What does this fold into?
Amino acid sequence: MQSVVAKGKSIQEAVQIGIDLMEVTKKEVNIEILQAPSKGFMKIGSKEAIVRLTKLETAVTAEKATQVQQDQVQMIPPEKELHTASDDWFSKAESFVEELDIDKIEIQQPEMKKTPDHSSEELLLKNGSVWVKDGKLMMQPGTEKLPVVSMTKGIRLFRNHELVEEPVIILSPKDDYRLEAFDEEKETEWSLEVTQDKLKAFLHVNPGYTIKRTIDDLEPLPQLTLTCTEEKTIKQTLTEPMIKEAMQERSILQNIDRIELLRALRNEEPSDYTIARGVAPVEGKDGWLELKVDTDVKEGLKEGEHGKVNFRETKVFPMIDTGEIIALVHPPEEGSAGYSVYSESLPPKPVFPIVLRLGKGVKLIGDHVVAKEFGRPHIESKGQLIKISIMPKLLHNGDVNLSSGNISFLGDIEITGEIDTGMKVEAQGNLVIGKNIQGSVCTATGSITVTGNITASDVSAGKNNMITSKLAMLTGALKQDIDRIIAVIIQLINSPSFKTTDFPKGGLQPLVRILLEKKFNDFIPRAKLYVQLVREGRAKLDDERWKETAEQISNLFLTLSTKAVSIEVFTHLSHHLGALHEESEMFDESRSTIECTNVLNSRIHAGGDLYISGQSCIHSRIHSGGFMTINGSLRGGEAYAEKGMYIGETGAESGTPTNLAVPSGAVIKIANALEGTILRIGNRKIVLTQDYSGLKARLNAKGMIELR
Amino acid sequence: MLHYTIDQTGPSATVYFDGDLDIDTTELIEIELTDLLQKFDRIAIEFQDVRFVDSSGMGLLLTLVQSLKAEGKGVYIKRVREDVMEVFELLQIPEILGRNTFIR
It folds into this structure.
């Protein structure tokens, strides 16, 4: 046996075993230490020392000499070494022996691969290894690779006493490495916060801690990730006096939850604690009006199973008698105050009484609103402003023709007969017509109900017919102008070069005259129109303030009065105009509905819903501010409905264009739509190219018309 | 009280105002000055020494300038103090009389 690899607990033991095996003495062999046990090298698999013993023979010795020479040549320039990249004594010795006993290696190698220990050992030989022992980093370069170490949090690596920052470090045998674990300490973080409504004070606590780290010992590996053992100790430095001081600073003195506070001091996890609470105020209730009578028009119309409506169940208008109590006025109820964490009082939201504006035919007795006349109660409201009046009713038995004359009435009108060609009916309320309308103009601010047909007429219901709505637009503009005039006057008075010496004598008129000349040159025409409209509509205006403001405007701006005027007169006028404007905006157009049987060659405008119950609506322009329902067919003309429409049949075989339009969010439903019907939804338009039954048209998510 | 002096060169005249243009100048402007200035074709009114105005005074100035201009005369208002101009601007007097009436 020329060569033997032996194992033992120590090198000596391994060598002894090898010598015994070869039956030689120590002097006769060349001893090569493959693995040293003392450096923990043997921790993988067996922890023994490995040595290779090679028998020294004369022939071999000669050969060895040349080999040594060769080796020496290789040693001089280590970088240019032919065999391996490694330049340590260990691998050189190995390669030397391997070359020495070429035929023996073949025997040896299967022997070495017998145990996995040997193969992993070999891997370590090839790739190098790194390990940790007693907190120290040890390494052995491989024949082909250098060992690599990955850093971890809490450990620092020093290369030649310099801190290395990279997370992954390739170890070089030329350098000196040192590991150091560092401890961590964090202070307790805490803050005191109060919610925006001042009802809760939060203590936010993130307890502090210390972390002690020790570097773990690790087995040799070509690539090693360092680990350390952490020992975390919670260090709560927050104390009760500290919190109390902070609370005192923020003046949180009362309503403190002590249990929660103690919990905050004891807990080891970051958390929030509500340590003080206030009490929310109890909100009060605004004043309100309790209605004692029915004021809503009863909707008799209900859609049946097939979308059909029984037109005989028409609307019922509530009527009340003289002396009847219409409503009760309830005063506002004050709420109760709460308090904040700062112990300051939190008042409830202020409450407001209702502002009652009594119109025609009503009287306030105590807190009761009582009817002075027979008629229909009419109530409008906006916020806390409520307007109540009694609409008187005019009953006209028979037809409206040349012998009866036109009818105009401030209240409801009921006509039992027909309305003849060329006649005009105007109601500042609801209008009911028992028979047909032909070639005439009918307007109402409320609803219009026609039992018969509408032919070649103009019928409109809603705000547009109200004289007050025209005036309301003007009051808005006039108020704005007057407010601006007031602002300019105030600015002038504050100018250093402006003298107010003539105000006691001439008042503001000379100034206003200059202002109206250019700066507010469109005020005069507007004021003139307002005065004229009020004069014309005198009979239809039930509020005295219209006339009062018109007179004032006329005196101040349209005539050359010499009476000195102060700025208060202007502010007073502005206030009145503002109130009138606001009140006239209150009108609810949804009640301005129109119902009739058939329509032919007419124009219909309904502020609210429109309902045509009969067989047809032909060549007409119809408009609804609400939902439009036509049971029969719509042939020719235009139809627009703000909230969508249902039509029995649309289009004409003759090809007369039939236009339907709704805004983008609304739906058009047609039971039977003929080819050529034009649908417009929002700003999209489509012409039907075929007949549809049960058509439902709407805009889809992409904004295109979808037919179903 | 408002004082004035007229400096004339041929058909042109420069009127120097000194004092406040207010309600007390009514007579002076409406009667005296309107007549005096009839014989000139070009009139410049120097405002350098006018420190205060009131609404009546401004009304008078507007009437004076507008009536002279209506007769085809060239009328210019010169060197209006900043404070006074502020008041004029608030009332848009430059717009009423024409921006080119005012010369700095």
